[in-house]
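Sample pair:
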Amino acid sequence: MPSTQISAHISPSTKELIERFVRETGGTRAHLIEQAILHHLQALKELPQNVITPVRLVLTKQSAERVRDLTSHPPEPTEELKRLFDDR
């Protein structure tokens, strides 16, 4: 079957994940990448957009500050949250 080569810039950590996977499975990078793209495209086609969670979230400066503040000074748990964890 004829093939086409594509190129992409990826992070070093993603490259390491790919390399580790192909070493452990005996597959090839090309096969893994093609299967990953096909699975992703199929999911985008079949699933509603609101159920697909991005792998990386990009925050604005304002939202990053809000996340930092909430993790540094978390609010008291609500009654609903307490009930959720009380069933143990």
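Residues 12-85 form one domain.
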